[in-house]
Amino acid sequence: MASGDFVAAGAGTDLSGTFTQDIDGEARSAPWSIGADHIDYSIPTGTIIASDNFNRTNSSTRGANWTNPMVNYPQIISNTASGTGLNADEPAYYNAATFGNNQFSRVTVGSLTSGDAEIQLLLRASGTGASFNAYVATVGANGYITFSRYVNAGWVMDASSAVSFTAGDVAEFRVIGTTLQILKNGSVVASRTDTNYSSGKPGLGFWADLSAATADNWEGGEF
Question: How far apart are CA 131 and CA 70, in angstroms?
Answer without folding.
Answer: 10
